[in-house]
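Human: Can I borrow your eye for a moment on a structure tokenisation matter? Separate attempts, laid side by side, tell us more than any discussion would. Could you pick a protein and write out its sequence and tokenised fold? No explanation is needed for now; the record alone will do.

Assistant:
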Amino acid sequence: GPTKLAKANVSSSLDLESEDISLETTVPTTEDVSSSDEQRNGSQKVTRQLIERKELLHNVQLLKIELSQKNLIIDNMKADHMSKIEELEERLNDTLHQKQVLVLRLDNQLKLTQEENRKQQALRKQEMEAILLRQQQLEETNRQLCEKAGELRRSLRDLDLSQDRYQELRGLPEDKISIQEYVAMRFYEVVTPLRDQLIELSVKNSSVTEELDMHRTKMKTLIESYEEERRLRTELEMRSQRLTLELADTKQQIQDGDYRRENYPNIKRERDNFEAELKELKRRYETVDLSHAAVTRERDTLSKEVATLQQSVTLLQKDKEYLHRQNMELSVRCAHEEDRLERLQVQLEDAKKAREDTYEKYVASRFDHYKSEYESKLREELENIRLKTSQEIGNLQRTSREMYERENRNLREARDGAVLERDRAVAAERDAQSRYDQLLEQFRQLQLGTDSRVAELSNQAKLHSFEAERANMVKDETAKALAQCQLECEKHQKKLELLTQEFYRLQTSSERRVAELHTQNAEQASRLQTYEKLEQELDQVTMQAAEIENEEEAERVLFSYGYGANVPTTAKRRLKQSVHLARRVLQLERQNTSLRRELESHKSQTGQISEELLAANQLLQQTQQPYSYLIETVRQRDAQISVLKERVTSLEGDVSSLRKERTALEQVKNNMAADLERLLNHQEVHKGTVDISITHHCKHKKARVFSESKKERNHAGWFLGFRVLDPLHHTTDVNSKTLKQESPLPAQRVVSF
């Protein structure tokens, strides 16, 4: 905004100076021509028509000069409007670019989340399929075992043999005997001696039961005598306990009377001490509460300052981006201004040559006095032009240097902040990944543990059911059949152990496979991350190259980032990049065509203005002495107008600087008012704490004085007590006044802290 207006004013001032120079170069020619006309036509008479014609020509020349000035003003306004339009178009392009970048980021994030969800679903499906396959295998083995157990149960039902059948089976070899017959034979061998023992034991049991009945009768009589003795004993114990309690009560009453009489002053002293400690703790609690309130207020102010600082950081980032774009614009415009300066220098050289030619003509027609005056004027004008051009060049160089330095400093700070932010983000990502791995490992361990526990419980339940059925079937059978069944059970347990070992072996192999898949997944993720970083860098480089207007600088940026290397990219991404570059090419072509049209229009305008200038010079050559004086006065007024314009611009600069100083002073005033309010708040808090401590101290003094007065119990003591209280009130008032006067110092310390 203001820099562009200043540049436009500088260009307009340079154009006006070039026009002044061109007009001043024509003055000597007109004077020379008029003098030559006077010498040549001195003897002729000037008619009235010729004078009117010259006046009309002079008026036409003045109108043309005014028209040229208005055309310059219109051109300046057009340039201002064009610059504003360019700024708005650049802002629109920036916003569109940001929108496209955000849309691309959103698409990439959606694709990544969809791919991650798809991968997780695939992993879950694989795990479920493996679990279902393992469950089917275990169900199949369980069904086979159940069938075998049922066959064994059905085969071991009828195991009773007669003695003849036993003798017959014993005579046969073992190969020809079936499992049922073999088990029945072994069962008979075990059961027959047990049956004999059972008969003997039944006889013994009958004799033992008779003896037991006798002993029971004796036991009942003994129990009755024992109950009587126990009842008598309980009555005696209750009497003894009652007597002992009465004795203890009497002793306690005696001891209580002695203890109260001896320890009454100690207890009273302890009560006083406890009351004093209670008051001290209350005072401390009040002070701590006040300090806590002050700390909470400071915390709120600090949180507000943090919020304002965050907003200022965001604003500074936006300012940095705006200054970067403005720097690019100024660099381009600086190049244009340098070209224009070169053209002005060429025009200046041409003006110098024309002035030298006119000076030679002037030397030929005038005396030495006018020659020296003209040389001095020419030297002063050349010196003024040189000083102005050097000042403009110095100002442009200084502003560009300051701008580049400020931009470099802002970019360094932004780079440091981005590096710190990246390190924090990487650390947070690592912590999150480690926690995710730990939780995933714990979940899998728990899942495996629960699966194994469920399998074990199901197997145990089946075994228990099998054993219960078998116990109901063989509860009346002998120990031989039980031993045989135990042998079969051990065989099944061995098979079960083999199956569990096979299960654990498969489990370890599956865990190993899962670990391998995790490592492969991590490697693929790292490769994918590097690939995405390469693609993002490639996108940024292509977009940066598309934004640069100069083709050589764009090629330099591309080759600096390794353009032309074998970087794998997708067809969709290449299509997006080509679309962005095509849009940029179309935009540049439109700008090129518009600039060509403007150049052609400017060329035609310059041709017309040059023709008008030649016609005006011819008319000025034809004018005589009084009209040349009028033209000189018009030029002097133009010079005065330019001086006044420069003064107005300098005064506007002074006004802007004064406004900045006023805003700075208002900011300082607001800061001082905030500090003053904070100081007053701390001063009030300190006054409250001081008043509390003074009142507490006065209460202690009053209590101590009144206790002394009660002990003395005379009129003199009462009088002295009141005399003590009056100075205490006086001293407390003085102390409170002094503390109120000294209170701002701690408040200032708190504020500074």
Remarks:
- Confidence is low (pLDDT under 50) at residues 1-36, 562-568, 715-753.
- The radius of gyration is 58 Å.
- Residues 180 and 448 are 42 Å apart (CA to CA).
